[in-house]
From TrEMBL:
Keywords: Flavoprotein, FMN, Oxidoreductase. The gene is bluB. The keyword Oxidoreductase applies. The keyword Metal-binding does not apply. Its EC number is 1.13.11.79. It comes from the Bacteria. InterPro entries: BluB, Nitroreductase, Nitroreductase-like, Nitroreductase/BluB. This is 5,6-dimethylbenzimidazole synthase.
């Protein structure tokens, strides 16, 4: 697959995980792709915690479903009914989970390029996640990003120090298929906007179409 094909095929996966094993060398390539991401000041502020233990995953799944209920309680009418039909994770069905963290102290003090924008460290971690996501897609695997959790809960579940932020819980594994249309679009939650709507010329407010 060329890079545009991989970008087009990538999906956030919840329902299509098979639970089949991933060969060690495939996992190594996917994590290597994540670790090859650009990072502010070459700080490489990411770590990857591989979670296979069913007990840990069950505990996290329960926490996520508590958070899902909390969010659902803020919705009414059509939004509430639509959200009810949307699956938000494949924590138990996927082969394993990869928790990606951000250590703001890595390479500090004086991280080159971060003096004015503290978030540049976090941006770097997100690029590692996107590399992982695209590499997994190229390997025929699915990835599902779960963000229905409290950071303190995940820190305590996995023994992550208070100074290190969990950025993503990623479900990873073989899938029976990748949907062509994002789940949220298929369920009528929200659709991808036309490109023209988000491209501006010269100034932020000058729309072309
Ligand atoms: C930061 C971030 C957090 C996300 N959290 C969740 C989540 O908790 N549960 C979920 O089902 N999808 C989650 N997603 C996936 C998005 O819903 C998905 O990317 C979007 O609907 C577009 O679909 P696609 O990735 O299949 O193109 C998250 C994506 C991002 C980038």
């Amino acid at each position: 697959m060329d890079v545009y094909e991989v970008i087009g095929k990538r999906r956030d996966v919840r329902a299509e995980f098979t639970g089949a094993p991933i060969a060690d060398e495939v996992l190594h390539r996917v994590l290597g792709a994540a670790h090859a991401a650009p990072s502010v000041g070459m700080s490489q502020p990411w770590d990857f915690v591989l979670v296979r233990d069913p007990d840990t995953r069950t505990q996290f799944h329960q926490h996520v479903h508590g958070e899902r209920a909390e969010y659902a309680a803020t919705l009414t009418g059509e939004r509430a009914a639509t959200f009810e039909r949307i699956k938000i994770d494949g924590i138990l069905e996927s082969t394993l989970s990869v928790v990606v963290t951000y250590d703001p102290h890595r390479g500090s003090p004086s991280v080159l390029g971060r003096h004015a924008i503290a978030d540049a460290g976090l941006y770097s971690v997100c690029l590692a996640i996107q590399n992982l996501w695209l590499a997994a897609t190229a390997e025929g695997l699915g990835v599902g990003w779960v963000s229905f959790y409290r950071e303190e809960y995940l820190q305590s579940l996995l023994g992550i120090p208070k100074t290190v932020r969990p950025v993503a819980w990623l479900c990873l594994g073989p899938v029976d298929r990748l949907q062509e249309v994002p789940d949220l679009e298929r369920h009528g939650w929200r659709s991808r906007m036309p490109l023209d709507q988000v491209v501006h010329h010269e100034r932020y407010s000058a729309h072309t179409g």
